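Appendix B. Raw example, untouched.
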Amino acid sequence: MIGFGIAGLFGKTERDVTHWRRPFYVLITSLIFIAQAAWFETLGVYVCVGVFSATVMLAAGERRPLHLLGVPLALVAFIYVVFAIALNVVFP
């Protein structure tokens, strides 16, 4: 994206005005990431990643129940397998 932006600045194409179409959702997502950082040690890695990935998806507009359940579960499973089993990393 950065590359396309820089190429657009130097290119001869017409520049479009950039708009934030969803500033409220961007603010909400930023607050969710701040809350995740604050609650990371308290909730634990797996619960925190699962819950907050689902809330970020909700804030981004995802409403399909299988995606809201499946993606966080797959993400938590991936983190568990790679870090806890393969790399033997101990999380709080």
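End of appendix B.
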